[in-house]
Amino acid sequence: MAAPETQITRLDRLIHDRVRLGILSALAASSEMSFGDLKAALEVTDGNLSVHARKLEEAGYIICRKSFTGRTPRTEYTMTSAGRRAFEKYLDHMDAIIEATRGKKK
Amino acid sequence: MAAPETQITRLDRLIHDRVRLGILSALAASSEMSFGDLKAALEVTDGNLSVHARKLEEAGYIICRKSFTGRTPRTEYTMTSAGRRAFEKYLDHMDAIIEATRGKKK
Questions:
Q1: Which of A96, B4, B8, B47 is the most exposed place for a label (fewest CB within 10 A)?
Q2: Which of B9, B11, B42 sits opposite A6 (nearest CB)?
Q3: B62 CB near a chain A CB, below 8 Å?
Q4: Which pLDDT does position B16 carry in this prediction?
Q5: CB proximity B2 to A under 8 Å
Q6: Model pTM?
Q7: Phi and psi of A31, rounded to 5°?
């Protein structure tokens, strides 16, 4: 197995970003989340959330649904199964890195 | 405790960057590493390594020593105790996030 530092450079860059990691983590726990709920949970600006959600959408990791509640526009996000697989893989990867880094110091 | 997605936005930004995480991980395992060895381990360019090592140096997380072996300049990096503490804290933080994310899905 490659050294932890080499493994780190192979982490999924799309997921490793702090905001995108937050979006996936939130959607892994809830079947659906609104733009407003995600924004509050992640403590980010509208612009920041939009940009990063769009990247995950383009990768096919999440789906964005727009609708109206009366006259109020509503945006809901859900995670795709491809997104869940990629996120699981990232977590396994990070877990292995943490273990290897700590193991080496013993 | 805050939800995993909120915790993620509080991860140490200085450490979370892929290359900087790699540098700290490598130096946590070795007492000292040369610029060349780090570059090979992380599979990054000279410029990329320089920029990120400088940021960690400015934060007081690593120390850079320049010397000569004959006429060949040599740059060696070591981790400071502040760097080790910050890195440990980051790993604990990431570990808690992984656990919380997985726990929530059960």
A1: B47
A2: B42
A3: no
A4: 93
A5: no
A6: 0.83
A7: -70, -30
